[in-house]
Fold this sequence. Notes:
It contains four helices and five strands. The chain is α+β, with helices and mostly antiparallel strands.
Amino acid sequence: MKAGEVLPPLEIPVTRTLIVAGAIASRDYQDVHHDAELARQKGSPDIFMNILTTNGLVGRYITDHFGATAVLRKVAIRLGAPNHPGDTMVLTGEVTAVETGPDGATARVRVVGKNNIGSHVTGTVTVTVPAAQAASDDGSPS
């Protein structure tokens, strides 16, 4: 892992089921996340994804890339364009800084998630990869 490393994109189909399941799992029962008619009455064209679901998907993106032993230290995101059913969100990332310490390597990763109307999410994730895994990723002996 090194600064400038670009993570491969991850395409996430945004389905009605994903939106509703994410809202239920995060105990966000606001009607705009499950009732299309009420969402329209409030000015939205359809239901839309909540920030907690987006946060989980960003975390998944990072741990899918850095491995199951990676530890998310900080996830700081901001929402923009809503994710509606039928959208595809494409997450991309780039390592902006890396520090090596006794517990492993800690990276800051800039993450952007775009859909067909713009940027749904932007932010930074701080992730630590344990020393043994970081060494093997560098090609060094563990």
